[in-house]
Amino acid sequence: MDSAYARRVDDRLPGSRRAGRGPRQAQKIYRVTLDLLAECGYDDLTVEGVAARAGVNKTTIYRWWSDKDALLGAALVQSDLLRLTVPDTGSLRGDLRGLVRELVELMTGEATSRVVVAALGAVAGRPRLEWLAREFVADRLSGERAVFDRAVARGELRAAVEPAVIVDLLAGAVWSRVMLRQAPVSEEFAEQVVDVVLGGCLS
């Protein structure tokens, strides 16, 4: 995540009390928050529970985040656990295959898959968290945009093609395969998905 972008998001998070990315133990607090979300669900997630497991005083958390929604939002947007590595293979096709692999790992990894499912459940019907979910997606897309900028510069992609559409198609295919069909994801799957999406964009 770009640090300047992270600071801008943090400044705008509902309930964030100050600029910056949080106390020195922020990443530990974020990880505990997401772990407890996956274990207990949104309704049973508490600031007190996060503080106890993270080994910090709850006043430290309240000094930075006004309530659990603000804390959860910061964890979703800023946690290293949910960060995607932006591939740079030298070609758009290679980069998109790398992106698909990153998405698969996010949705199937032991540490991340439960968090993704629990976070989606928490967001549903809660406008404040829906805003934060949009920030999460916007942040990831801001990093992935470099993939498409490089492709345009190399002449592989028309500038008029909207990167978000390509990302949505790839992510939707992975989500359907992993979460809905619960089918295995192979390297061949990643290649086929990218080939189909690019075939539509480049034709």
From TrEMBL:
It comes from the Bacteria. Residues 1-24 are annotated as: Disordered. Residues 46-65 bind DNA. InterPro entries: Homeodomain-like_sf (IPR009057), HTH-type_TetR-like_transc_reg (IPR050109), HTH_TetR (IPR001647), Tet_transcr_reg_TetR-rel_C_sf (IPR036271), TetR_C (IPR011075). Residues 1-14 have a biased composition (Basic and acidic residues). Residues 23-83 form the HTH tetR-type domain. Pfam families: TetR_C_11, TetR_N. One of its GO terms (molecular function) is transcription cis-regulatory region binding. Keywords: DNA-binding, Transcription, Transcription regulation. PANTHER family: HTH-TYPE TRANSCRIPTIONAL REGULATOR RUTR, TETR-FAMILY TRANSCRIPTIONAL REGULATOR. This is Transcriptional regulator. It comes from Saccharomonospora azurea NA-128. The lineage of its organism: Bacteria, Bacillati, Actinomycetota, Actinomycetes, Pseudonocardiales.
